[in-house]
């Protein structure tokens, strides 16, 4: 799998290259600033890009903007955005074209190597990987509202994991229940929120996120 | 340049008649009605209108003649409703000087500022109109030229004199307008007493600001010392232990490494919260519009945000503005019991105006609560002000103003 990395801190950039190479990714280019990132994304059209939000030269949201621009040029280009802090505002912008292949995680999550690599793969496959911090903020914000109040604690847990972008199998593994039980929960959640049921994992996640962001 | 001055002279003369004179009369009436009480209600709007006119003159003096007239008014107090407002206006010496100016200017605006345009208009009449009417009799002085008595030589005299007058008005325009601006400065600028008072204000807000930032640094030092720093020590200890054990007891080593990773996660979370409290990253990345929008999205109630800024304010101002809005919204969430809230941020030419409102139960008291006091202090460092209206039963509307200029428009 071909990947482009954008990170301005040399230590972290080398760490990411080593980590992803160890898990069988081919790092086609690692850049340290916004303009190079824009060029690299269009030139290599990687299977997935791992991008830091804040990059030189302006040290603002250079990386995020480059990623969003590249996705306008190459629709659905998988991008996993890393940041020292997560913002609902950025999550919203990343998910706004609702074509999937989006990840948005705190940099800390890299420390859980297995989960991180799984997230990169998921994004490369057109799936979603949203930081638990973003999801829990979304749910706290909406928790006063009617359809969400009607969820059982168990269903809420499933909803949270689903919003992070996990498949039914992954949710079942994480909650120590059978996949069948999870399927039942998701069906209930979709009924209570009034969302159309879909067999496809990715499309389901996007529906949930669109609902939560509305 | 000179042509502009003539147009401006005409504008000033007209303004002195249609705005200044009526205001002077209204002022007199309001003052006369003060003993009856009615005047007290009438005075504030009239005085504020006078201030508006005076401020316009201050701007023109700078733009047209390069004469800088600082605004001498005292800052608007937090409690600027009803009697508080009357007191704020009437105890300000600048108000009384404004009144004097209104009276003087209704004459001076015509006689001095209007002079260049009068010369040009009368001169033009002498050149373009009068010479062709010399056969008519009984023209007198005044707006007309004395022709009838002198015949054709009179008409030639008209042409010559008219040209001289036009030229005088045309060339004399800029210096005359400048003289007018200087006279205005003597009446509209701050007095020495006001400057001394200003020094006292600045000394007070400066020491408050210094105290507050020292306390803030102390807090950050404590947070780092007891938080992240301590956790990093524990972290390196865990890793060191794991290093020792990796051969003899690999299972225990793995357990220690997992603990170390968790400790690093906690340290990072603490650092993140600390950074957010010092300067929110999204504010650095997106400026005030993005910062306020991102803030609104984290609150448990719908917040309607409108930000309309043609450029960016200086970073310290942005930061003060952000934390002021954040504190008000936090109060709304904690105390107001509101269904929804709204934030409106715009720039009125001289100041950043931030309005935060909600549909909650009202009854907010700016003098209670350390948060509000902290914000008042933070705003005061920039000569900013805050006004709260929050009747029992709501709604609550907080208006904050931060004087500042905006930098060039966003790229």
From TrEMBL, chain A:
One of its GO terms (biological process) is phosphorelay signal transduction system. It comes from the Bacteria. This is DNA-binding response regulator. It comes from Actinomadura harenae. Residues 144-214 form the HTH luxR-type domain. PANTHER family: TRANSCRIPTIONAL REGULATORY PROTEIN NARL-RELATED, TWO-COMPONENT RESPONSE REGULATOR. One of its GO terms (molecular function) is DNA binding. Residues 2-122 form the Response regulatory domain. Keywords: DNA-binding, Phosphoprotein, Transcription, Transcription regulation.
